[in-house]
Amino acid sequence: MADEKNVKLFVVSHKLLNPKYYPDREIIYVGKNKDKFCSITDTRDDRGDNIASKNYTYCECTAIYYIWKNVKCDIVGVEHYRRLFFNFLKLRRKEYFVKKLKKYDFIVMREYPFLQTIKKQFIVGHGTDAFNIFKEAIEKEAPDYLEAFNEVMNGHHIAWCNMFVTTKDKFDKYCEFLFKVLSYVENHFEIPKDPYLARLIGFISERLLSIYLKKNKLKVCHSFVFYSKRYKKK
Predict the structure, then answer these.
(1) Mutual orientation of helices 200-215 and 128-141 as an angle, nearest 10°?
(2) Residue ranges per domain, the chain?
(3) How far apart are CA 91 and CA 15, in angstroms?
(4) What are the pLDDT digits (tens) for 44-84?
(5) How far is it, in rounded angstroms, from Cα 127 to Cα 121?
(6) What pTM value is reported for the model?
(7) What percentage of the chain exceeds 70 in pLDDT?
(8) How would you label 70-94 residue by residue, b for 16+ Cβ within 10 Å and e otherwise?
């Protein structure tokens, strides 16, 4: 198992951050405006093998893709500029993840409950056509995941926000599944023009993590998430 030196925890952001608020983390900048505030030494999603130009619809998945293709480590994590794993208002540190991953396969946020089914919640937000192409992508690209898809979408709880920590080998396997499904949706569905609805690929990806975990019967640790507003550099 990895020691703390081989753990990389990435905080995805489209806003300039003060690193002192993100101990043990490496900030990765995304989005069309990052040139306005990134320095030459900052980590960003448009270097190496990347899909940075698709951030408007892929959201934080452009950072996940960059990490998949360009980063070498033993344990890897993805958090957000305003959502971080914590315990009693203190950020989880690397040693916590190293210890937990001796017992669990993935660490994700605590499941978010919905009164509606996940399917209904998705359709209300994005429409029936978007749901149908989502399901079609599973049927065409990962048919063995269809049962897990139906279970998750007909349920009322989901691990949200594309936040997770796992070993790099498990991260890579998940990304193979993730981007295969997302690519199908992108290539077979007209992305909406509305700026919010255009984030469709990112919204679909949030559901795919729970589907992947269920299908593969992985051992999952659920962690509390801290919602921070400290994202303007001082």
Answers:
(1) 50
(2) 4-227
(3) 20
(4) 999 999 999 999 999 999 999 999 999 999 999 999 998 99
(5) 10
(6) 0.95
(7) 96
(8) ebebbbbbbbbbbbbbbeeeebbbb
Specify the CATH number of the domain 4-227.
3.90.550
The CA distance from 86 to 93, in Å, is: 9
On whether the CB atoms of residues 78 and 10 are closer than 8 A, the answer is yes
For residue 218, give Cα distances in angstroms to 5, 174, 204, 211, 213.
Answer: 25, 11, 20, 11, 5
- Give the amino acid at 141: E
Instruction: Give just the sign of the alpha carbon dihedral 15, 18, 19, 22.
Output: negative
pLDDT tens sequence across 184-195: 999 999 999 999
Asked if residue 71 lies in contact with residue 8, where contact means CB atoms within 8 angstroms, the answer is yes
- With a CB cutoff of 8 Å and minimum separation 6, the contacts of 105 are 166, 167, 170, 218, 219, 220
Show Cβ contacts of residue 65 under 8 Å, excluding neighbours closer than 6 positions: 45, 50, 51, 58, 175, 179
Distance (Å) of CA 49 to CA 62, 70, 103, 186, 206:
11, 7, 32, 19, 22
CA atoms within 13 A on the CB side of 151: 11
Owner of token pair 């499941």:
111
